[in-house]
Design goal:
By secondary structure, the protein is an alpha+beta fold. Helices cover 32% and strands 29% of the residues. The protein has helices at 13-20, 103-112, 114-143, and strands at 24-28, 33-35, 43-49, 52-58, 61-69, 74-75, 89-92, 96-102. The strands form 2 sheets. A 4-stranded antiparallel β-sheet has the order 1-8-3-6. The protein has a 4-stranded antiparallel β-sheet with strand order 2-7-4-5, with no helix packed on it. Helix 2 (103-112) crosses helix 3. The chain starts with 12 loop residues before the first helix and ends in a 9-residue tail after the last helix.
């Protein structure tokens, strides 16, 4: 996870309030498909309860799960960077409760409020970097000549 555990903790309380005003709570049943790789990224979520898998299409095979996200994690970062297309697909593992945000409203708020914008961009960048590191470690464990050395 990034240095700061929760997106809301990455910003001052007055900015947190501004961002929270854009959120709405959603309850998603098991096996809800939230988005598909290559489609328009128009929202994101902060998971409150439950788990969501991220998957990637594999030609001629079933999509491969690349990561599972849970409580307090941000689901979706493609909404923040042009061309605003999802890099993965996502599906709920079981029931999920989350805060859902409209991406265009949050991007506009980030442009309007540089302090909030910097906090959001930094948090998302740290999240992406941390997930990339985790993916590289898993790939080394699977395909490296002797693994990553991180395991038992």
């Amino acid at each position: 996870m990034p240095t700061v555990k929760h997106l809301f903790d990455a910003m001052p309380p007055d900015r947190r309030r501004r961002l929270t005003e854009l959120a709405h709570e959603v309850a998603l049943p098991r096996a809800t498909r939230l988005f598909e790789e290559g489609r328009r990224a128009d929202r994101f979520w902060i998971i409150r309860t439950g788990r969501v898998t991220l998957d990637q299409r594999v030609p001629g095979r079933q999509a491969a799960v690349v990561e599972t996200l849970g409580r307090d994690e941000v689901l979706g970062w493609s909404w923040l960077f042009p061309p605003y297309l999802w890099h993965f697909g996502a599906e709920t593992v079981g029931p999920v409760e989350a805060l859902e945000f409209d991406a265009s409203l949050v991007r506009a708020l980030c442009e309007d409020d540089p302090i909030l914008g910097r906090a959001v961009y930094r948090y998302v960048a740290e999240t992406v970097a941390e997930r990339l590191h985790g993916t590289r470690t898993r790939l080394l464990d699977l395909y490296g000549p002797q693994g990553s050395g991180a395991g038992p």
